[in-house]
TrEMBL record:
Coiled coil: none annotated. This is Class I SAM-dependent methyltransferase. The keyword Nucleotidyltransferase does not apply. It comes from Kineobactrum sediminis. Residues 49-150 form the Methyltransferase type domain.
């Protein structure tokens, strides 16, 4: 999707759906964000920019990690998600006062002379039309020597949490049109050589790319059927189903449940995944 399509998507029904499930997603993705923070060694930073902050869980995590006196600006394009973020911050007396939120497209927004010493993102930077230009724009908000740390998904075949339900769905629905090479999307940064090129073009230095294995744990009160539906309605399959009939949807849910039952352990869906941890400096 283009930037304009992304903005429409995250401010429409999809954005409201993600906002409603934000607590579940925050719990599932928190271990990845914590591991990224430990990997990036950002404890000496105090003024952070959180790109694609969503419901603000990692924005508050950043503020806690960086400690008292630090400030974090969370940026996102989604009104529904930012409503959740502001509510979450207001309910957090420990670190809520250290964060603020801005609705903007980080690819083009003029941040002025903010002089951030950290640019951080948990799966929020793979959706730019022109990623080199987007990172160039964000770099202008960074102080000299500032750090960059973000995570992105490796290839779809390396992420069974996404691949298995997608394969089950394609038994019942037509496959989507193949995306253009390097099109914005969850797996747009799967190629580490491309990521390195993008960041070099944006003027960033000391680029390091490290693989990281993850476990994606989904749960809906220990209910297998509800958990599978959550996964299909939130993950890559959701767009395939948005215009399908109830009959087709039910067939997909049934097929996916059968395919994923072996991964449902102790009331949780536990599926492996693979990400890249990317670090660089200004």
């Amino acid at each position: 999707m283009s930037n304009e399509e992304q903005i429409a998507y995250w401010n429409g029904e999809a954005g409201r759906k993600w906002a409603a499930k934000d607590a579940m997603m925050a719990t599932m993705l928190a271990p990845i964000a914590r591991d990224l923070l430990a990997h990036a060694k950002v404890q000496d930073c105090s003024r952070a920019l959180d790109v694609g902050c969503g419901g603000g869980s990692e924005t508050l995590m950043l503020a806690e990690h960086l400690g008292p006196g630090s400030t974090v600006l969370g940026v996102d394009i989604s009104t529904p998600m930012l409503e959740v973020a502001r509510q979450r911050a207001a309910a957090d007396p420990a670190t809520g006062h250290q964060v603020e939120f801005l609705q903007a497209d980080a690819a083009t927004h003029s941040f002025g002379e903010r002089n951030f010493d950290l640019l951080f993102s948990r799966f929020g930077v793979m959706f730019f039309d022109d990623p080199a230009a987007a990172f160039s724009n964000m770099r202008t908000a960074l102080a000299p020597g500032a750090k960059l740390a973000f995570c992105c998904w490796q290839r779809l075949p390396d992420n069974p949490w996404a691949l298995i339900p997608l394969q089950a769905a394609l038994e019942h629905v037509a496959p989507p049109e193949p995306p253009a090479p390097n099109a914005p999307g969850p797996f747009a940064f799967a190629d580490p050589l491309r990521v390195r090129t993008v960041l070099e073009q944006a003027g960033l230095k000391e680029i390091a790319i490290a693989p990281h294995a993850v476990n994606m744990c989904w749960s809906n009160n220990g209910n297998l059927d509800a958990t599978v539906r959550d996964m299909l309605n939130m993950g890559p399959v959701s767009r395939l189903l948005q215009d399908e009939s109830d009959t087709v949807r039910q067939a997909v849910y049934h097929g996916a449940t059968q395919a994923m039952t072996p991964w449902f352990i102790d009331g949780e869906m536990r599926l492996p995944g693979a990400v890249w941890f990317i670090t660089a400096t200004h």
